[in-house]
Specification:
The protein is an alpha/beta fold and 210 residues long. It is built from six helices and seven strands.
Length: 210
């Protein structure tokens, strides 16, 4: 156990440094809203999802904290990629069914004061705009009583071949009180997060045009 922890401590900053060079120097990653990231404590990071590049893009945008993502189990079939994912605190979740063990792991990460990363759309949305939000993000937030950080990820769909630099826009936390999830409350939280992401994306694109 100790060796595993030591390996993580040694390798994590090295891998992160390499990714910093790739994204900031190579892809010219633009980040806004880092002041909205809490220095400590549990919160859910909720980005939109266009590409497999999104998890590391958002992770690099959080310079002083690790995002513990819930990621589709298919990503763990490649042993090298799986090793990198686990190095960054990512754990698998089964799609298309209620994965009780993944939900328990997610709640445990939050109880330990970590940042949990959930893509509210559940999968990559290849078309423009946002896809349908699933219930997982809002349900877990209510079960744990933690706030949600809405995050807009732009220009990641065509990476690494893109003419526009990717951008990660981090919004202000949306407060979520601890309660039993129901259809109405889930929909209300989903709409708040969706509206925040859409507004950040629209304002950013308007600024780029001017």
């Amino acid at each position: 156990m100790g060796n595993k922890k030591n390996t993580h401590t040694i390798l994590y900053p090295i891998v992160r440094s390499v990714l910093n060079v790739i994204f900031y120097k190579g892809f010219k990653l633009h980040v806004e809203g880092q002041e909205n990231i809490p220095a400590t404590g549990a919160i859910i990071a909720a980005p939109n999802h266009k590409s497999d590049w999104d998890p590391p893009l958002v992770g690099i945008a959080f310079p002083n904290r690790v995002i513990h993502y819930m990621a589709k189990e298919e990503l763990f079939k490649n042993p090298v990629f799986a090793w990198i994912l686990r190095l960054f605190g990512t754990f698998p979740v089964k799609r298309g069914a209620i994965d009780t063990s993944a939900i328990m792991r997610a709640v445990r990460e939050l109880k330990q004061g970590n940042i949990l990363g959930i893509f509210p759309e559940g999968t990559r949305i290849r078309k423009d705009g946002l896809g349908r939000f699933h219930s997982g993000m809002a349900s877990i937030a209510m079960m744990a009583g933690v706030d949600i950080l809405p995050i807009a990820v732009l220009n990641s769909r065509e990476l690494p071949h893109t003419t526009e630099p990717p951008a990660v826009l981090i919004g202000r936390p949306i407060h979520v009180k601890k309660q039993k999830p129901d259809k109405a409350s889930i929909e209300a939280i989903n709409q708040q997060v969706r509206a925040a992401i859409e507004q950040m994306a629209e304002e950013y694109r308007n600024r780029q045009k001017n």
